[in-house]
């Protein structure tokens, strides 16, 4: 008995797919249209996140050991952003109307010297 007698060939699978192609194409097309219509009626909403690291510089001690010094504490920067201290400067730099400027939220990332700044609009 031939050991390859019970094996399926790739062409057998492709023939089955070709015979049933409309059972694959039609539901896929219907779902794509349904999701497109659904997403069209969803409220327009966007969110932007940015992670920044405050400036640092390296100093060398008399022993020749280098150390990093953060110029401004990230907690201080987060507080200033949350108090909207930079909004006028950012709006002027980006040529935006300050009345339409989005609300920025800043927070320190745990165990790092980095900040996450985010904004969300509906």
UniProtKB/TrEMBL annotation:
Keywords attached to this Swiss-Prot or TrEMBL record, sorted alphabetically, are:
Cell membrane, Membrane, Transmembrane, Transmembrane helix
Location within or outside the cell: Cell membrane
Domain named Polysaccharide chain length determinant N-terminal: residues: 9-68
Q: Where are the transmembrane segments?
A: 21-41
Q: Which GO-annotated molecular functions does the record name? A: protein tyrosine kinase activity
Q: How does it sit in the membrane?
A: Multi-pass membrane protein
Q: Which InterPro entries match?
A: Bact_polysacc_biosynth/exp, LPS_length_determ_N
Gene Ontology cellular component? plasma membrane
Q: What name has this protein been given in UniProt?
A: Polysaccharide chain length determinant N-terminal domain-containing protein
Q: Which organism is it from?
A: marine sediment metagenome
Organism phylogeny = unclassified sequences, metagenomes, ecological metagenomes
């Amino acid at each position: 008995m031939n050991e390859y007698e019970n094996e399926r060939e790739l062409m057998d699978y492709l023939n089955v797919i070709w015979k049933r192609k409309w059972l694959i194409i039609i539901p896929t097309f219907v779902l794509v249209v349904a999701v497109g219509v659904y997403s069209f009626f969803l409220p327009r909403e966007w969110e932007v996140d940015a992670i920044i690291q405050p400036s640092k510089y390296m100093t060398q001690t008399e022993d020749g050991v280098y150390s990093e010094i953060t110029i401004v504490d990230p907690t201080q920067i987060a507080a200033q952003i949350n108090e909207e201290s930079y909004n006028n400067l950012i709006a002027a730099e980006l040529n935006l109307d300050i009345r339409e400027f989005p609300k920025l939220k800043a927070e320190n990332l745990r165990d790092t010297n980095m900040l996450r700044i985010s904004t969300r609009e509906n």
